[in-house]
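[Q] Does anyone have a clean structure-token version of this?
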Amino acid sequence: MLSNMKTVTIKADAEFDALLSLLAGRLSTTRSRVIRDAVRNYQRHLDREELRQKIRSASLKTRDQALNAADEWDAVNADGL
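[A] Here you go.
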């Protein structure tokens, strides 16, 4: 798998570098693996947030439609039908 890997260079201050090394040590993995996993996790987080927003929007639309239907039903009932 390493033969297909591209090299990416990032700039990091001493604090970030130390944190990255600490995480790699705690996880018994490489610093590169920590960064790859972090980026993938961030992507999943963004995807979930996007889905949550879509669900919320659909839920609000459905709620509005239900309220409109209830208002129409009340109007029909008020007409004595």
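[Q] Thanks! Anything notable?
[A] The mean pLDDT is 91.
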